[in-house]
């Protein structure tokens, strides 16, 4: 259990809709589908209706600051069976990358490797009170394409199990007055900030360990909102939109999207 699983869920019933290919760039072929992840008749490029609207806003925000740049969708909706497949795949891949056989690990080794996996991946939990973020249709893994359509340098690939994935990992190298200044790493930091500014100004929250993972309306989002003291000072208005989904009268926060 993560702390954000304590947040209550009241599914608002918004449908899953496909991210229009003419509006949002996609990573193609889809990296998990290529591995054989069991999507059935669902596409990974679906989100809840309200999340699509916020992504449109995020891309417009991005293009105000960086004309011609686009959000590229790496992953969005993920059935729980796909979450299970990817968690198992990541565990096996990690173990093998250490020259070990997953079938012959000691208990201590298994524990250590699973901890590394779950620092970045959510548990494939079928309990409707604690769904994995992507299984709610509220979470997206995204990066940027620059004005020439090339992937922006973000400093490390999506899904890398390493500290380089932490959003501010390159911040110490980005200050031109510091001895540690490094122009290449500074660009990666700037691009991560561009991405975060675009998404956050549209209402998304970023995963604390992953520069690419953003969500709105799920349990992690609601939990991060309660940690934000300024959010608690919002007026007690009706739940007209996602930002107002917090019930400020008793400081309780409700996630709007359950697993679909
Ligand atoms: C690892 C990454 N692709 C991801 O989506 N992580 C989050 C936390 C998840 O599994 O929901
Ligand atoms: Zn994610």
In short:
The chain has 260 residues and is an alpha+beta fold. It has seven helices and ten strands.
Folded structure, characterized:
The chain is of the alpha+beta class. The chain has one domain: 2-Layer Sandwich (Muramoyl-pentapeptide Carboxypeptidase, domain 2), CATH 3.30.1380.10. It has seven helices and ten strands. The chain has helices spanning 31-34, 49-65, 80-97, 107-120, 183-200, 219-227, 229-232; strands spanning 8-9, 16-18, 25-26, 46-48, 70-75, 139-145, 205-206, 213-215, 246-247, 252-255. A hairpin with a 6-residue loop joins strand 7 and strand 8. The longest helix has 18 residues, at 80-97. It is globular and about 50 Å long. The model is unreliable at 229-251 (pLDDT under 50). Bound molecules: the ligand C[C@@H](N)C(=O)N[C@H](C)C(=O)O and zinc ion. Zinc ion (ZN) binds next to strand 6. This is D-alanyl-D-alanine dipeptidase. Keywords: Cell wall biogenesis/degradation, Dipeptidase, Hydrolase, Metal-binding, Metalloprotease, Protease, Zinc. One of its GO terms (biological process) is proteolysis. Pfam families: Peptidase_M15.
